[in-house]
């Protein structure tokens, strides 16, 4: 769309109007300025003329007086000054005074300045000898006319101007003065007749700048002296005529003023007119003109702006209509739809050029023909039905059908048809059809439909009222309805009665907040089949925006089969868990039951070997040796089998912590050294420095390494070598390898290496073993997030390795490995001690008796019941108590608690002896306060060591309690 340029005509018009208005104002301003200048110059001229008039009048008045004065002088001199002449002259003076209005009086003085004559009556004994003019005439024989004043005259004391001439006799002798006293008010009276407005002023000064007359009259103006500045302003006094603006020293008003110097009569005339007054007319005219111009301007502006808006509106309208026309033209020329006007008889009355694109015909070929012929025969009936709806009063109908193109090909079209009524009859008269090619859409719909049909899940589209609008084949199948039976029905028919009312609420909530709802979220849902049976389903929902309003697209999955499998799995898991618990219980009771008899077997065999009850025969020694070794073998087997079974039952409890590799390896190296020596094998250790710590269960790690090392030593040859090495193949891992140069493993057997109870032929040799070690090691390593592996060559040797996660150095202090109680004091050396043994099993009691009998100075008390044990403990305060944990009536932990509760027994070390041998049991026991925790079957050496440590502190304790 073309934009209307902002500088186009309307804006230009406004600019012109604004310019014209400004120009008018400017011209008016200029004219006003001119008029003002004119008014001012007129004022100046007026003041000059006024000043001239005042000057002329003053000069004339003075000249007239001087003429009379000159005449009088001549008479006086000619007539002589004889006294007889006096009355005649007196009369003359009086006559002349009467003739001249400006004259107050004439007077004559003698050579001494005494008045001899005056034209008014009054005292004549007045002297003018001190008057300036008298001195002037006396001293200047050719002095001529002299003007003085204003000054008070000495006859009646009024203001007078004195016009005088000297009287000289024929011989030139000074004989006095003849003078005229002129009334200053005479000038003022004349000046009053001049027109000077209300604020004008006229002033007459003498050449001493003293006021002679002022109009309008001011009370004491006469006789005041002006300063030269007041009179001449900035101009020099030599100028005879000055016109300027100045302020009067008399009334302080500023006026335009003209000054005229009158050298003939030594006077200055000043006429002044008020500028305000002078410009009053001009001002009035100017205001009038400006108001007029402003009115014209406003009128012009209003006219201009409204004109501009009119133009602008017309422009916009024209522009819009041009754009709309262009768009319509564009639409019409490029429309792919065809527009046709038809009669109810099916005859085409008009068709748009779009028919070329849609059907391939020219409009002329169609107009006047029956269009029914262009429809597919199968669709005729459907279209006829739609047209009938129009006849029945429908506003419009939309129908799609196949139409034949000129080339014979059928295309799908969608036709929107509207009936146009005859304005006279109001009956439908003709049809307007907009026809569009929708072949592609139909194909897409077809594709979508087949996709929908082949989908493995049931799909249902419901409208805003929850009525089913569309279903696919799978929906028909799982719900057992035909498509026709479902379309138009409320979706609730597909769900059991108990869900229906809740579903309606849910539906309206969903309509208010449509959103995707994925499968499997929410509660268990059920579908209702046509036959009334229910089945579990899962539903996903998504909102659909369609021409017919918002709809909901639901995908429904029958999850009967899945639920069945889930249930089966759940049952299987439950059974397995139950079995595992049973196994666990079995293992722990087995462990206890096996260890208790083994304790007796190994213990007694050890006592026999100690040889305390008199020497054994060689045979007896050998037999007891066999019992001991078989006992140990059995104990190993029990331990390992139970361990393995425990792991498999998921009972393995590891305490994974930071372990220092060097410490752990040094410890197992030292532990295995005696076995290596016994087998004539050299045992080496290589750990690089530094090496990261690892994360492992310390105890279990040693168990693994001891197992691998004992294999490497056992399956070796005399003079062979075994090396324990640690490396770090990658930053996060530490590898510990046990290498030997022993017999190696045949390739055919290697695959069975980690199978439990597989000894790979070793069972036929002298070498002892259970066949469980490697299987157990693998389980343990894997439980510690590690890996185990090997490489072996028959006759050359084997390397077994494990890898465990490393923990970078500095992340926490490492637990020192291999820290073991160092005391191995012999109980025999302690001397003078008592031991209380609380144990219910008679065989074990006997075993203890025998053990203690080997220690000199240790007295044994035995108690078969816990209560008795407690009593004995209080009575005898033994140095050490050995306590079985599995006692009748009261368990060992409670016995310990009671011992710790009593002050007499609180300090006595208590060694636990128990068949509960798991690391957790041991840890629990030590935490409860046992001094040591010895497991059954008893390891005599370990037991004696513990006993020695307990007794070592006895003397100090005794001293303290004594
Ligand atoms: P055993 O208690 O028999 O040693 P293991 O599980 O530890 O049980 O070992 C399984 C078998 O693997 C052994 O019987 C032995 O035949 C073989 N074997 C294990 N380690 C080695 C080794 N370092 N050299 C040769 N053979 C070995």
Largest sheet: 7 strands, mixed
> Rough shape?
elongated
Radius of gyration, Cα only, in angstroms? 74 Å
Strand content: 15-25%
Q: Distance N terminus to C terminus? A: 116 Å
Total beta strands: 32
**Would you tell me the structural class of the helices and strands?**
alpha+beta
How much helical structure, as a percent, in the residues? 40-55%
Contiguous helical run count: 26
Low-confidence stretches: 1-7, 811-831
Mean pLDDT across residues: 84
List bound small molecules.
Answer: adenosine-5'-diphosphate
Short description:
By secondary structure, this protein is an alpha+beta fold. The protein is built from 26 helices and 32 strands. The longest helix is centred in the first third of the chain and has 70 residues.
How is the secondary structure organized here?
Layout: H1 9-78, H2 86-99, E1 103-109, E2 115-118, H3 132-139, E3 146-152, E4 159-168, E5 174-182, H4 184-192, E6 201-206, E7 211-215, H5 228-232, E8 241-247, E9 254-262, E10 267-274, H6 275-334, E11 338-343, E12 348-351, H7 354-359, H8 363-366, H9 380-391, E13 396-404, E14 410-421, E15 428-437, H10 439-454, E16 458-462, E17 468-471, H11 473-479, H12 483-486, H13 497-512, E18 525-528, E19 534-546, E20 549-558, H14 560-610, H15 618-648, E21 657-659, H16 661-678, E22 682-686, E23 693-696, H17 698-714, E24 721-730, E25 733-740, H18 747-750, H19 773-783, E26 787-793, E27 797-807, H20 827-830, E28 833-838, H21 842-853, E29 858-863, H22 866-876, E30 880-884, H23 892-901, E31 910-914, H24 919-928, E32 932-935, H25 940-952, H26 954-961
Parallel strand pairs: 22-24, 28-29, 28-30, 30-31, 31-32
Antiparallel strand pairs: 1-2, 1-5, 3-4, 4-5, 6-7, 6-10, 8-9, 9-10, 11-12, 11-15, 13-14, 14-15, 16-17, 16-20, 18-19, 19-20, 21-23, 23-27, 24-25, 25-27, 26-27
Helix pairs in contact: 1-2, 1-6, 14-15, 14-21, 15-19, 16-17, 17-19, 22-23
The structure holds adenosine-5'-diphosphate.
